[in-house]
Design a protein that fits this description.
Distance between the termini: 37 Å
Largest sheet: 3 strands, antiparallel
Low-confidence stretches: none
Helix content: 25-40%
Structural class: alpha+beta
């Protein structure tokens, strides 16, 4: 039997009385690849933000790794890698330095440099050296965002328009 990673039940979100998400339910099992398709403004990013704890739903509920409340839900989110909309990066730092900052923020300690180099190689940024992120192309910034989402080898990835700006 498959392990349920995410269960969304009748989630609705309203902003200033405007319904952005209306009674959405879905279930994602371990190993599934799931895509949300819809027009701009359909609520795809908002649903992802709700799951990540960045926005609260107006009604309905969701479980992430079987957890739905408090500290246990917070801990479950540590198993999730996220890239929603444009990746937030420090423009005056290099790709390696950005990964170091993100790793330290997530884990409270310095990362193994070999591990960060592996992440950069995985996304094709191993040769960026001392180039600062503000000089990166949109695609390079997006790939760095993917590397950040992969820190800690998450069990579940939430990627919002992950191909936006990427080279073919």
């Amino acid at each position: 039997m498959s392990e349920c990673i995410l269960a969304v039940k009748n989630v609705t979100k309203r902003f200033s009385g405007h319904v952005v998400i209306d009674n959405v339910s879905l279930s994602i099992d371990k190993g599934d690849i799931y895509g949300l398709i819809g027009a701009n403004g359909a609520g795809k990013s908002t649903l992802m933000k709700i799951i990540c704890g960045l926005v609260r739903q107006t009604s309905g509920s969701y479980e992430l790794f079987g957890e739905s409340k408090g500290k246990k839900l917070f801990e479950a989110r540590s198993k999730v890698g996220v890239l929603i909309e444009a990746p937030a990066m420090y423009g005056e730092l290099t790709a390696m330095q950005n990964l170091e900052v993100q790793y330290r923020y997530l884990y409270g300690k310095k990362a193994d440099e070999r591990y960060l180099k592996e992440l950069l190689a995985l996304v094709g940024l191993e040769d960026t050296g001392k180039k600062i992120v503000m000089k990166f192309s949109l695609g390079m910034k997006q790939r760095l965002g993917l590397a950040v989402a992969l820190i800690g080898e998450p069990e579940f990835l939430i990627l919002d328009e992950p191909y936006n700006g990427l080279d073919p």
